[in-house]
Amino acid sequence: MRRAYLLLALFSAGPAAAGSLIGAEVPPYPDGFSSSMGACIPDGRDICGYSIGTLENAEGDVIAIIAEQKTRMADRQPLLRVLDMIDTPALTDRQAWAIGECEIDGRLEPTVAGIVNVKDTGGWIEAADTIWAVRFDPAVGKLRAIDTARVTCAIPGS
Predict the structure, then answer these.
(1) What's the pTM?
(2) 111: closest CA among 40, 62, 16, 57?
(3) CA 145, CA 80: separation in Å to the nearest integer?
(4) Four-residue CA torsion sign, 145, 33, 156, 40
(5) Rounded Cα–Cα distance for residues 123 and 52 (Å)
(6) Where are the domains of the chain?
(7) Residue 27: count of CB within 10 angstroms of its CB
(8) HSE on the CB side for 150, CA within 13 Å?
(9) Which residues pair with 21 in a beta bridge?
(10) Which end of the chain is more exposed for a tag (fewer CB within 10 A), N or C?
C-alpha cells in the first residue's frame, strides 16, 4: 500500500485520509504507518486469500481497519491490495482489539474486527463486551459496521 506519491498528502489530514490507500498494494506502507494485527480469510484456493487487519500510525495507535486481497508473493512475503478501509474510534485504557476472534450469532466469523471492553480477572485479562465491530464481505470487497448485540469477541491469547 505504499506509493511514493501518496506519502505526504495521504496522512497529513489524519485518519480520514486513510481511505486514499484503497487500491494500493502493500507492504510497504507509507512512512510512519504499519499494520501489525490481522487475520486471514480463506478464498477457496488460498487459506489467506483475503485479510482483515489494522493500520497504525507512528505512535502505534490503530487508526483504521483495512480489508485486503492477496495479489502475489514477493521475496516470500504476500503483497496485498487494499480493497476497503474504515476509520476506527480511539481505544480507552480498558479496551482492546479483537481480530479474527469474533462470533456473529454464536458462529465464529474470521471476517470481523471489534473493540472489546476488557476486565481484569486477577492478573488475567478477558473480553467483557464488544462495543464496536466491522465485518468484511469479500464478495463485494467492502467493510460494513455490524450490530454489536450480535457480536461476541475474544482477545487472542486470553
Answers:
(1) 0.84
(2) 40
(3) 22
(4) positive
(5) 29
(6) 4-87, 95-153
(7) 14
(8) 12
(9) none
(10) C
Residue 8's H or E segment, with its range, is helix 7-11
Q: In 3D, which of 100, 66, 69 has the Cα closest to residue 86?
A: 66
> Which ranges of the chain have pLDDT less than 50?
1-19
Contact assessment for residue 67 and residue 82, using Cβ atoms and an 8 Å cutoff: yes
Given this model, what pLDDT does residue 120 score? 84
Residue 134: how many CA atoms within 13 Å on its side-chain side? 21
Residue 142 CA to residue 150 CA, distance in Å, equals 19
- What is the DSSP code string of 41-76? E--SS-TTSEEEEEEE-TTS-EEEEEEEEEEEEETT
Distance of alpha carbon 27 from alpha carbon 42, whole angstroms? 20
5 — phi, psi (to 5°)?
-75, -10
